[in-house]
Design brief:
It is a single chain. The protein is α/β, with parallel strands linked by helices. 32% of the residues lie in helices and 28% in strands. The strands form 3 sheets. A 3-stranded parallel beta sheet has the order 2-1-3, sandwiched between helices. The longest helix has 22 residues. The protein is globular, with a radius of gyration of 16 Å. The termini are far apart.
Length: 166
């Protein structure tokens, strides 16, 4: 059994935790609040990853602090905010990034893990451009997957914004 560590933005994530436990009852599941990430927590997460544990963070949810740590990229035909925190964290942790998509197929929940990158690279002079590039790639992958199961991707807040994409 693999230990899974999940970072969430929302203290009301009990349903997510319950669903993950049902999907893999043999795995060990730890849930951490993103707003509780301090140096000690990051070092703890690094030790967990180095020990072979997995770390999950949603790549399509705007941080509770607002859009300050997001970049607007094309998604389903309109500009949408995507967080850059997952890439900053992956860079800090020095870990590879995989994408996980889950969707219901009848009575079965399907899960697809995809390679995203071996390491997040953020060149000093092109840091913002690199972060945007990761967000664009993620948005494209999510757009593809959402197109395969269009009624299974949703957000409970106003997601798209008007105006030019930066």
């Amino acid at each position: 059994a693999r230990t899974v560590n999940v970072l969430v933005h929302d203290r009301h994530s009990a349903q997510f935790v319950e669903a993950m436990a049902r999907l893999s009852p043999d795995s060990r599941l730890n849930v951490f609040q993103v707003d509780e990430l301090d140096v000690g927590r990051v070092l703890d997460l690094k030790a967990r990853i180095d020990a072979g544990e997995w770390l999950f963070i949603a790549g399509d949810r705007v941080p509770v602090s607002g859009t300050a740590h997001t970049v607007r990229v094309p998604f389903l035909g309109r500009p949408a905010p995507f967080p850059v925190g997952p890439y900053l964290l992956a860079k800090t942790l020095g870990c590879p990034v995989k994408l996980m998509f889950a969707w219901r197929d009848g009575d079965t929940v399907r899960v697809d893990l995809q390679h995203f990158c071996d390491a997040v690279e953020l060149p000093r002079k092109q840091r913002d451009q690199a972060l945007r590039g990761y967000a664009v790639r993620f948005a494209q992958a999510l757009e593809h997957r959402a197109g395969q199961a269009p009624l299974q991707w949703f957000n409970f807040f106003e997601y798209w914004t008007d105006g030019p994409i930066r």
